[in-house]
Amino acid sequence: MQTNERWVLLLTLLLIVLVVAVDLITDTSQGVILWHILVEGSAGVLALVGILYLLHQQFQLKGALQTERQLSAAWQQESEQWRAQSKAYLAGLSVMIDQQLHAWGLTPSEREVAFFLLKGMSLKGIASLRNTSEKTARVQSTAIYAKSGLNGRSELSAFFLEDLLPETDAGH
């Protein structure tokens, strides 16, 4: 339920409580029988319970939202710290990758496509970013694999990234 809907419901229940309270005061002063007062009083109590429930839910929702905001801020800060700490390494890696792409004899367009492939972008996404057709991106990626002697995107990624990951013990 959205916040506006909660407030409308809360105000409606509050109005019901007020109307029932006024009616109970009027009925009591006029000597209305006890069961009638108990029934109307029960309706007012139920409306009050509804108000308390909505307020409780609202406070819980605000608390959960605050917790999520704090977690998000912490993750954002951790991400920014990682980027700042690894920036020099990543810049060096980028230079080294570009040098290898030059060594393979890739054109500037093919080097750009190679970087996008390493970032995990689809051919359609690459074509869109470069304002070319998907067919052009496909032809350029095929040229990259041919010039590098690699058999596709996974081998291209592994060529540059395999040594960045810690070795795993295959027996365990």
Account of the 3D structure:
- The chain has 172 residues and is mostly helical.
- The chain has two domains: 1-86; 104-172, Arc Repressor Mutant, subunit A (Orthogonal Bundle), CATH 1.10.10.
- 81% of the residues lie in helices and 0% in strands.
- Helix 4 crosses helix 5.
- It is rod-shaped and about 100 Å long.
- It starts with a helix and ends in an 11-residue tail after the last helix.
Sum up the structure in keywords.
172 residues, mainly alpha, 2 domains, 81% helix
Average the pLDDT over all residues and give the rounded result. Answer: 89
Query: What fraction of residues sit in β-strands?
Result: under 5%
Poorly predicted sequence stretches spanning 5 or more consecutive residues: none
Compressed to H and E, one letter per element, the order equals HHHHHH
Globular, elongated, flat, extended or rod-shaped: what is the shape? Answer: rod-shaped
Distance between the termini: 50 Å
- How large is the radius of gyration? 33 Å
What is the percent of helical residues?
Answer: over 70%
The biggest sheet, with number of strands, parallel, antiparallel or mixed sense and barrel status, is:
none
SS-derived structural category: mainly alpha
Total strand segments: 0
Q: What is the tally of helical segments?
A: 6
Number of domains: 2
Keywords: Membrane, Transmembrane, Transmembrane helix
Transmembrane segments: 7-26, 32-55
Protein name: Helix-turn-helix transcriptional regulator
InterPro entries: Sig_transdc_resp-reg_C-effctor, Tscrpt_reg_LuxR_C, WH-like_DNA-bd_sf
